[in-house]
Amino acid sequence: MTAQGADVPEGDGQTTARTAASPGASNGADANGTSIAVPAARERARSIPEAAVARLAVYLRALSALAEQDITTVSSEELATAAGVNSAKLRKDLSYIGSYGTRGVGYEVEVLIGQIERTLGLTRKHSVAVVGIGNLGHALANYGGFPGRGFPVSALFDLDDDLVGVPVGGIPVSHIDDIVEVCSEREVTIGVIATPTQGAQEVCDRLVAGGVMCILNFAPIVLQVPEHVEVRKVDLAVEMQILSFHVARRQQEAANAVDGAASDGGPPGGGAGLPGEIDSANRMVERL
Amino acid sequence: MTAQGADVPEGDGQTTARTAASPGASNGADANGTSIAVPAARERARSIPEAAVARLAVYLRALSALAEQDITTVSSEELATAAGVNSAKLRKDLSYIGSYGTRGVGYEVEVLIGQIERTLGLTRKHSVAVVGIGNLGHALANYGGFPGRGFPVSALFDLDDDLVGVPVGGIPVSHIDDIVEVCSEREVTIGVIATPTQGAQEVCDRLVAGGVMCILNFAPIVLQVPEHVEVRKVDLAVEMQILSFHVARRQQEAANAVDGAASDGGPPGGGAGLPGEIDSANRMVERL
DNA sequence: TGATGTGAATAGTTTCACAGCC
DNA sequence: GGCTGTGAAACTATTCACATCA
């Protein structure tokens, strides 16, 4: 996972920085005149734990699947199973956004979908720009306008002049030099960096200059961004290495069966022979 | 980010399941005869917090970059900055794998690299199979044998007969029906699922049957796997939605400026001219 | 003197278990 | 009877702060 924040504070494995939000009293009831303009719809909505936010997105997908099957009601148990969590956690997570269930019955699928969407800010459209139209960039650009709701890809950028002007996934590629202009013009809020490591910080700076507020970074580099910009990182190498760690741990555990009584509850299946060990220099060739 | 586990327990945001490891005494000193075969190299190595494991991979990259610049020593402060964490956390993380620093001086880059690689199990090669050679699959197959050390891609699979046999990134694509056979033959330990949602569970089952121990899943579905298989999920939609949440939160916070006395302890940092006030609608366009 | 390594304090997250309501 | 919502307990992770040592 791997956090990625401006500088100091962090949350879970992969998380955006700071925690903000003054603890004390909630910011709800501030009966003042100006509230007229604001429909009083989304008030509190703070203080939702980072970890819970991530899971809300997962619940949302599970709920959408249910809705498609014309299922109108779910229990926390059912939804939890579909989302791969336990029901206590699910109920707790949902409690952060309000009480929309019915005791003894469950949740109304449509209602929950609406509430989660509201909480995640999905009622507003977020234009996406993808920078770096290589293999990964293509994949992202063709990602069906981004799954589900409001993430239309509205700009693509690359360095390569042969690519500029060519439409990918219906949108013509612009040159990287025009990031600032195009992004502010098309009101891009989310930038996706799919460039090689070298260009990433430069691209990031331009996206920020173009008014982008969030960045999803596939380049294996820690980006420097101003405080008001949110960064999330997806790092394939890190994911693989975490998996590697778990394999190693498991094998080591298995090896510790040298000790144990017969059945120590360990991994019975799997088996297979383990190769020996390698060992060498190790070079770091980044690519993308 | 979203956990993904067989059924119940989970860790941080994105984590593999169970915690295993008996707490009590470490498994170190078990002076028995069979220890001859085992070089007594990697013994304990348990009990490293999930979150720390993820960061070790990040430190490793930062260290590799330093090594390439022929830098031989780093302080926790420097390395922490490079990795985007604070130094206390870094020192704590490193302390889980042992004491390899020198007080008053710092860490030797090469030594740390070696120790982290050992801890992450990178001294063993992990063959990778990629299933689903679409846009994303191509990107993954061409990922340069996977960044850095030991993750050679050694098998590719797709459903499409037009693709079977065609080499991608130097490796010919095999048919999905041959997953079990090919994977066990080539001793694949890590499977990457880059298929559409529909096929994902089926593919997963075959990978498992083929002896794969870890799965990196790009399909937006919660996979069912036996206990001994580790799954990690990368979900673009979830990432985007988390970002969306943060935008929404920030805008909502800005809107709450309706209230505030002048300085309510909000983000004072940033310094610089920073955008002063925001109008009702509130747009966040930073210029340069 | 300067930086590591780590116990103790704090913060965040998950799980338990049960009151409350349908 | 069944299921939600939620305090409180348990657990995990981060930060502090300082003893320790080269």
TrEMBL record, chains A, B:
Lipoprotein as UniProt keyword: no
Gene3D superfamilies xref list: NAD(P)-binding Rossmann-like Domain (3.40.50.720), Winged helix-like DNA-binding domain superfamily/Winged helix DNA-binding domain (1.10.10.10)
Ranges for region Disordered: 1-33, 256-288
Keywords: Cytoplasm, DNA-binding, NAD, Repressor, Transcription, Transcription regulation
Statement: the UniProt record of this protein carries the keyword S-adenosyl-L-methionine: no
Residue ranges constituting the CoA-binding domain according to the UniProt record: 122-222
Reported function: Modulates transcription in response to changes in cellular NADH/NAD(+) redox state.
Family matches, as InterPro entries: CoA-bd (IPR003781), NAD(P)-bd_dom_sf (IPR036291), Rex_actinobacterial-type (IPR058236), Rex_DNA-bd_C_dom (IPR009718), Tscrpt_rep_Rex (IPR022876), WH-like_DNA-bd_sf (IPR036388), WH_DNA-bd_sf (IPR036390)
Primary localisation category: cytoplasm
Protein name: Redox-sensing transcriptional repressor Rex
One example GO MF annotation: DNA binding
Pfam families from the UniProt entry: CoA_binding, Put_DNA-bind_N
Binding site for NAD(+): G132, I133, G134, N135, L136, G137
Family: Belongs to the transcriptional regulatory Rex family.
GO cellular component, one term: cytoplasm
GO biological process: negative regulation of DNA-templated transcription; response to redox state
Subunit structure: Homodimer.
Subcellular location: Cytoplasm
UniProt organism field: Saccharopolyspora terrae
Residue ranges flagged as DNA-binding region: 58-97
Classification via SUPFAM superfamilies: NAD(P)-binding Rossmann-fold domains, Winged helix' DNA-binding domain
